[in-house]
Write a structure and sequence with these properties.
Elements (H helix, E strand, L loop, with lengths): L1 E3 L4 H4 L4 H19 L1 H18 L2 H6 L1 H25 L27 H18 L4 H7 L1 H10 L11 E5 L5 H8 L3 E6 L2 H13 L6 E3 L12 H4 L3 E3 L13 E5 L2 H4 L6 E7 L8 H11 E11 L18 H11 L2 E11 L13 E9 L16
Parallel strand pairs: 1-6, 2-3, 2-7, 3-6, 7-8
Antiparallel strand pairs: 4-5, 8-10, 9-10
């Protein structure tokens, strides 16, 4: 898989030195969060161990199995740290024009302690291995990814066109499995991802992992609550469940790094845009929908599945709007899309620990929209803006 930075160049031509410094700082911050994983995680265990030792002796005796469990947690953390070292080992050379350091300059690590939010994102990234690249994640992928893949295959039949001539974009690609599955079927596919946590890790899986189930990760080791059995916290997962190199010889598969609204600007470029658990990642969901309309070719399809979690809702330093699905649907139609298929109450999960005593389930929306073959000049999409 190619880490394609060509689509970001136009948005970076007018960048100032200040912008570049901010980007370097951001890059270094994410690397620092990964590097701090082991220290932070072991400190959490040490705090519990110290409290355990302060308990009355007869309490400690009753908790001997729990004490042994904490030792197992330490071993899982150490194992995860070995995977993290592999993830960040070559990140300084991932991008041609996004590289925040020179080709021979080592990545400098910021001295300040990473934020709690960044460390939580490291934990979330470990769980993403399960959803995208493990046998244990097969059910989630069947529910969330398979309907999208089936719609693409149905609408772009090989009897009608050559798959490689169909260009599919997957914004919010995460660790890249949905985009990989589309490319595996012969379509020209590009993932787009903003999060460096995801980009670093998808680069490791897609470009460094060869073979099946060659690595082991402990994704639930930081879930200290709602465990029925001790081993449910320390359960390991092997990845990848499929060899990421198993693509057709002429497969066109790439990943574009950057903000969707800044990177994906070429009008009438894509035959299909597939979004899964993505559109609620916007401060302004209307800007996402409008951009999707603009960059689709006339007659192109938008396939979407997901909830409306609205990631920026209630964050102190972020603005956000959170319209209901009914209002979102009005926006979709108002911008010019024709809705061809629509299902509500689609039961889905996201990086769920199947053994946890607490289970989250979304009732997602699945729809297929088409941009009219003859673009209406009166469409709001022509007005531009964010």
């Amino acid at each position: 898989m190619k880490m394609d930075d060509s689509s970001t160049r136009s948005s970076r031509k007018m960048r100032s030195p200040h912008d570049d410094e901010e980007e370097k700082a951001h890059f270094q911050r994410i690397v620092a969060a990964f590097k701090y994983y082991r220290t932070h995680s072991l400190q959490r265990v040490a705090k519990t161990e110290n409290y355990l030792r302060s308990l009355p002796a007869h309490h400690q005796k009753l908790l001997e199995n729990y004490h042994r469990h904490l030792t197992e947690i330490r071993a899982c953390i150490e194992s995860n740290d070995q995977i993290i070292k592999l993830i960040i080992r070559d990140v300084a050379y991932m991008f041609e024009n996004v590289n925040p350091t020179g080709p021979t300059e080592p990545v400098k690590i910021v001295s300040s302690r990473p934020s709690g939010a960044d460390l939580e994102k490291v934990h979330a990234t470990l769980k993403q291995f399960v959803r995208d690249w493990s046998e244990e994640g097969a059910q989630e992928r069947q529910t969330c990814y398979q309907p999208i893949v089936e719609e693409i295959v149905s609408h772009f039949s090989t009897d009608m066109c050559a798959p490689q001539d169909i260009r599919v974009l997957v914004p919010g690609a995460g660790l890249g499995r949905l985009a990989f599955e589309i490319a595996r079927r012969g379509y020209t596919c590009q993932g787009n991802e903003f999060s460096l946590f995801m980009l670093f890790t998808s680069n490791f899986v897609l470009n460094k992992c060869r073979g099946t189930n060659v690595y082991h990760v402990f994704p639930w080791v930081h879930q200290y609550v709602n465990n029925l059995l001790p081993e449910h916290q320390t359960q390991g997962v092997s990845f990848p469940d499929i060899n990421p190199a198993d693509l057709p010889p002429n497969a066109q598969f790439s990943m574009a790094a950057g903000d969707f609204l800044e990177v994906c600007t070429e009008k009438d470029e894509w035959d299909c845009i597939s979004t899964c658990f993505f559109i609620d990642c916007a401060n302004n969901i209307v800007a996402f929908i409008e951009t999707i309309y603009n960059i689709l070719k006339p007659g192109g399809l938008w396939i979407n599945l997901g909830p409306l979690l609205y990631h920026f809702s209630d964050l102190a330093n972020e603005n956000s709007i959170e319209p209901s699905y009914q209002v979102v649907r009005e926006v979709i139609v108002g911008i010019g899309f024709e809705i061809e298929k629509e299902e509500t109450h689609v039961k889905t999960t996201y990086a769920q620990n199947p053994k946890s005593m607490l289970q989250y389930e979304y009732e997602s929306v699945f729809f297929v929209c088409r941009k009219p073959a003859l673009d209406d000049d009166r469409s709001p999409s022509q007005t531009g803006g964010r």
